[in-house]
Amino acid sequence: MVQGKYYVQFIATPVSSLNKTKLPLDFEVFENISVGRSPENVLVIPDVEVSRRHAILYREGDSLYLEDQNSTNGTYLYDGKVFQQVKGKVQLPPNALVKLGSSTIVKIVRE
Q1: Dihedral sign, CA of 12, 16, 22, 28?
Q2: What is the DSSP string of 10-62?
Q3: Quick check: 2 pLDDT over 80?
Q4: Nearest Cα residue to 95 out of 111, 82, 81, 74
């Protein structure tokens, strides 16, 4: 079975050049994809509301998980009505909307 590729699509971020861009998440190369403001992360988000080491994305079997790394401004998952704060790790639904801090929103899509 061919695994679909995952992408991060920027919906809203203070860095306007990133809005509407789509970046591949390469789980073939990186077992864990670190997300944060610091340049050593795999996915760097230059937003002051995003912690240096904000969250980690990883796969277990056919599921994708997001784990908050005790970020200062929180990681939130949209449940269809509101953004709920993520504590620890959470399995991501298809086309998950994730908010990092208060101003960056990304969609995690699989194609």
Answers
A1: negative
A2: EEE-SSGGGTT-EEEE-TTT-SEEEEESSTTSSEE---TTS-TT-EEEEEETT
A3: no
A4: 111
Q: Which residues contact 71 (CB under 8 A, 6 or more apart)?
A: 36, 50, 51, 53, 54, 55, 100, 101
pTM of the model: 0.93
SS3 106: strand
Sorting pLDDT into bands at 50, 70 and 90, what band is 4? confident
Mean pLDDT of 23-36: 94
Q: Rounded CA gap, 14 and 18, in Å?
A: 8
Tokens of 33: 């994809």
